[in-house]
Amino acid sequence: MCFAETGQFQKIVLYAKKVGYTPDYVFLLRNVMRVNPETGKQFAMMLVQDDEPLADVAQVGGCDLRFDLTSLFALCFDLLFLSFIKLNLGILPQ
What we know:
Elements: H1 2-5, H2 9-19, H3 25-35, H4 37-49, H5 57-61, H6 69-89
Helix pairs in contact: 3-4, 4-6
């Protein structure tokens, strides 16, 4: 959780892959969102924007996020837009 608290999300992914462990990324995201919603948004985007997403878009978008309404709308829009782009590029199954 130390990397998550300091916003070093890429290090979480790299370390997990190095030791062969798959963390509960949605759990980590929920904890980050409670502390810092803006940082949580960056983490959420990182989880779903890879060629092989680390978490399902529906799970990430369904987190109990403590955002103000504007931030929540922005996150949902970003996730939907990213999914739309991946569908149109043929990366995600329809």
